[in-house]
């Protein structure tokens, strides 16, 4: 017999169905969450988001595919589920399978570099988009992934005070509650102004086991960081506090280059200076500037490309730490 006042147990059941329905992974029919990622999220298991511009624009095939697979493996080895994010045929995909990863890696720069501003266009025109930090954060937050690992993030460009070329990665950090683990910001950018801008955006910038903000290839940038975190658990507590307070902004966790690499990292500075001069001479601007500078630094540092070797070493190191943070956070939220 139908009852107008359901028993409390069926109400609880309805409530749990409802909360299932509201589960962030199901909340947007326009995105496709892989079965593995979706299961992990609904069971409260640690998940780590990964960007895809680093695959399409960061290095050539097949090195990009190898690196992407290795980074995913490192995340798994450290106890979390990787979710590489990209837009394929206009569908935002959260968690790529091997076939999709290979497709994107082969596409390379044919895939559109997709920041937040580009998402609607790439989706509407059913294009393939490789997501930058800003777009990856947007999708990670949409499905409820709290931790995201990358190599370096975008920032305020040199002369940004005149050109207003400021990466949307920074404004995304100001508006989206995802923790981004990176090796800091490359000195192709204006690091002090990048940190000023992050402060304006209300972003908590933390340095991992150091008091200095790292400059990707080098441990130091000359800029001090007020927030120092010394373990994955400390990082997790900070992320948890940021979430519980509903601050709404992201957190940047900057992990310095390992000592064994940092001497070679210093050698890259002159290549950066040369790349910057060339970009100015060739009048390279807009969203082409970052890929141009990164590619030139790789070329100038030689056949074996010191810069690209370090790029890969750093993203792998970040992946291990990011996965540990994600595991510690899942533990806290249990
Ligand atoms: N910096 C790096 N490696 C990268 C990028 C930046 O050291 O791969 C990529 C990231 O995808 C980042 C994007 O989100 O470039 C920023 O581009 P722009 O400066 O156009 O916002
Ligand atoms: Mn820009």
Structural write-up:
This protein is of the alpha/beta class. The chain contains 15 helices and eleven strands. A hairpin with a 2-residue loop joins strand 3 and strand 4. Helix 4 (63-77) packs antiparallel against helix 5. It is globular. Bound molecules: pseudouridine-5'-monophosphate and manganese (II) ion. Residues 51, 53-54, 58, 115, 132-133, 151-154, 167-169, 186, 287, 290, 294 line the site of pseudouridine-5'-monophosphate.
Layout of helices and strands:
Layout: H1 8-22, E1 32-33, H2 35-42, E2 47-50, H3 53-56, H4 63-77, E3 81-88, E4 91-94, H5 98-107, E5 112-114, H6 119-124, E6 129-131, H7 133-143, E7 147-149, H8 160-163, H9 168-175, E8 179-182, H10 191-200, E9 204-208, E10 227-229, H11 232-244, E11 251-254, H12 259-266, H13 268-281, H14 289-300, H15 306-333
Parallel strand pairs: 1-4, 2-3, 2-7, 5-6, 7-8, 8-11, 9-10, 9-11
Antiparallel strand pairs: 3-4, 3-6
Helix pairs in contact: 4-5, 4-15, 7-9, 9-10, 11-15, 13-14
The structure holds pseudouridine-5'-monophosphate and manganese (II) ion.
**Which molecules are bound in this entry?**
pseudouridine-5'-monophosphate, manganese (II) ion
Ends apart, CA distance between termini: 39 Å
The helix/strand series, from N terminus to C terminus, equals HEHEHHEEHEHEHEHHEHEEHEHHHH
Separate helix tally = 15
| Overall pLDDT level | 92
Based on helices, strands and strand pairing, what is the structural class? alpha/beta
Strand count = 11
* Major β-sheet annotation: 11 strands, mixed
* Poorly predicted parts: 1-24
Approximate shape: globular
Q: Work out the radius of gyration.
A: 20 Å
How much of the residues is beta strand, in percent? 5-15%
Helix content: 40-55%
Keywords: Glycosidase, Hydrolase, Lyase, Manganese, Metal-binding
Protein name: Pseudouridine-5'-phosphate glycosidase
GO molecular function: hydrolase activity, acting on glycosyl bonds; metal ion binding; pseudouridylate synthase activity
Pfam family, one: Indigoidine_A
